[in-house]
Structures are given as structure tokens and as C-alpha cells.
Design brief:
The protein is built from four helices and four strands, in the order H-E-H-E-E-H-H-E. It is of the alpha+beta class and 117 residues long. The chain has one domain: Alpha-Beta Plaits, CATH 3.30.70. The protein has a four-stranded antiparallel beta sheet. Helix 2 runs antiparallel to helix 4. The radius of gyration is 18 Å and the shape is globular.
Length: 117
Amino acid sequence: MKNVCLLFLVCLFNLGCQDFNKFHHVLLYKWSANATNEQKEMFLETFELLPYKIEGMKNVEIATIESSMRDYDLMVHVTFSSRTILEAYQNHPDHQRIVQMADDIILSYSYFQYSTN
């Protein structure tokens, strides 16, 4: 009976931990001086809708940056279930739309990626 209980606890622990295996993509943006509020809203809305369109994209968090060394204005933190999903996202039509919009409204950007286990 002890072995069955131990096996059950190990399985339960593994199921609970599955959500911790994530891949994170963090983008930092500086708005162009000529970016309109309407363009900014469309850009952000496109990001916010991505989890509903891309299976395995878990979350999009958008925040205004209060202070940064390079004067970035905006942080977009995207969480994926795996690096493979991130790679698929790169070619998704809505991501390509974001890239095209950025050409007109983003002065500079940077990004970094990390994973959690």
C-alpha cells in the first residue's frame, strides 16, 4: 500500500509541475516619436490576442516601463509552453503583422529569452 501511495504522490507532483516547464520571450520597445495612440493600441491589441490564436502560447503580459537604462517605454512578456512553440510563433501571420507595424512605430527594441523548469 505504501508503494501505491508513493506512486500516486509522484504522479500528482509531476502533473502539478508540468506547468512550470515554460519558455519566456521578453521584448523591450521604445516608441517612435511619430507613433500615434491609435497605432500603439493596435500594436498592443495584436499582441494581447495572440494566445487565443496560437496553441501553446500561454500568456502575454504588457507593462509600461517606468525607468530603464536605454529609455525603453514598453515591455511585452510572452510565455510559451516550449521553445518549439516560440519558433512556430515567429512565422505566424499575426506575428508578421506585428513586425510590419513595428517598422512604423518602434524606434528601437531588444529582447531576451529564458526557460523555467
